[in-house]
Design goal:
The protein is an alpha/beta fold. It folds into two domains: 243 residues, 3-Layer(aba) Sandwich (Rossmann fold), CATH 3.40.50; 93 residues, Orthogonal Bundle (Tyrosyl-Transfer RNA Synthetase), CATH 1.10.240. Helix content is 51%, strand content 11%. It contains 17 helices and nine strands. The strands form two sheets. The protein has a seven-stranded mixed beta sheet, with helices on both faces. Strands 1-2 form a two-stranded antiparallel sheet. Strand 8, helix 12 and strand 9 form a beta-alpha-beta unit. The chain is globular, with a radius of gyration of 21 Å. The model has no long low-confidence stretch (mean pLDDT 95). The structure holds tryptophan (TRP).
């Protein structure tokens, strides 16, 4: 069809220009509409910019989570990270939002590091590397300020005693043909990957098992993970658990033309471990929606709709709606030149990074408080 450009979204690959409305239709999720936003606002007072700006745009059963909450039945949060490299700014989006939910709803968070998944999936990564990245990435999670009393980070390879008991019960209800269809596995997929969806599903039920009663689970995550939860939701009632609820984010844009930030293209992403000079250079080299010359820019204006520099403001670096719309207008009418805009963004990125890096250093002293062991 004319208006449907090609894109791919799987847990292991996001490519092309993502049509989020189409994803909602294909994955069978619900858009986050104004009614739901108003309902959230009753509990949170303010709306996080990620909600106002529809960066979190889709959900399953979030309204049910609120029903439960309003009936004094507390939920817990579950999210995670596949530790295949250093953390980039895009990874922080769901985590920042998870922190907001933890603060507003006073909830526990279980955070899974899938060192096993990344080892199994990536031919180039050794198990030692994914384990080391898991500990490295945990520093970024902790740096965001999660409450150590309510936040439990675990590595699959190290917390397996608890995970395994739930995972095998789960796996008994999932056939190869189900995961083949859901994840695109085939006869050449290694058998570790084929079992792995049970391991990612298990934490949905952790607190219910640990505390011996059903506890609702809410998963904030980028939408590429939703296929895992689809399978988890099918199996949950068979094990006597609630179906996990989900709230989905869009992908943080690449600094290059189109697509999301990617760890495999280091110039397209800013890593939390980048030096300030590296970060500045990446911003300065970014693609923009600007014209070829200053003269043309002043005459025709730029195009913020395709501009990573503008997207950066939109996603993370300008939470003030009025100032953001000024940027938008000044770009459109040619008053704001790309060089100037990049200069400004580079400064915001560097401020953010230097602050985050300090917190990341401090996290090294308290990481033990967060890591769950059995
Ligand atoms: N598979 C995810 C990834 O590759 C990691 C993950 C595990 C996760 N459990 C999760 C992500 C729960 C979001 C929510 O990044």
């Amino acid at each position: 069809m004319e208006d449907e450009r090609e894109f791919i979204v799987t847990p292991w690959e996001v490519r092309g220009e993502v049509d989020y409305d189409k994803l909602i239709r294909e994955f069978g999720t619900m858009p986050i509409n104004d009614d739901l936003l108003n309902r959230i606002k009753k509990h949170t007072n303010d709306l996080h910019p990620f909600l106002r700006r529809k960066i979190f745009f889709s959900h399953r059963d979030f309204d049910w989570i609120l029903d439960k909450y309003e009936n004094n039945e507390k939920f817990f949060l579950y999210t995670g990270r596949g530790p295949s490299g250093h953390t980039h700014l895009g990874h922080l989006i769901p985590w920042i939002f998870t922190k907001y939910l933890q603060d507003k709803f006073d909830t526990e968070l279980y955070f899974q590091m899938t060192d096993d998944e990344k080892f199994l999936h990536n031919p180039e990564l050794s198990l030692n590397e994914t384990i080391n990245y898991a500990y490295d990435n945990a520093l970024d999670v902790i740096a965001l300020g999660f409450d150590p009393k309510k936040t439990f980070i675990f590595l699959d390879t190290e917390y397996m005693k608890t995970i395994y008991k739930i995972a095998i019960q789960f796996s008994k209800h999932v056939t190869f043909s189900t995961v083949k269809a859901a994840f695109g596995f085939n006869s050449s997929t290694n058998i570790g990957m084929i079992f792995f969806p049970s391991i990612q599903a298990a934490p949905c039920f952790f607190p219910s098992v640990l505390k011996g009663k059903n506890i609702p689970c809410l998963i904030p995550a980028a939408i590429d993970q939703s296929v895992y939860w689809r399978v988890a939701r099918d199996v949950a009632p068979k094990l006597g658990f609630y179906k996990p609820a989900e709230i989905h984010s869009k992908f943080f844009p690449s600094l290059m033309k189109g697509g999301k930030m990617s760890a495999s293209e280091p110039e397209s992403a800013i890593f939390t471990t980048d030096s300030l000079e590296q970060a500045e250079r990446k911003v300065k080299n970014a693609f923009t929606g600007g014209q070829a010359t200053i003269k043309e820019q002043k005459e025709k204006g730029g195009n913020p709709e395709i501009c990573p520099v503008y997207f950066y403001d939109y996603f993370l670096f300008d939470f003030d709606d009025k100032s953001l719309s000024e940027t938008y207008n000044n770009c459109k009418n040619g008053c704001l030149l790309c060089g100037e805009h990049k200069e400004r963004l580079a400064k915001s990125v560097k401020d953010f990074l230097s602050d985050h890096q300090k917190k990341r250093e401090k996290a090294k002293n308290i990481i033990d408080k967060f890591i769950l062991r059995d």
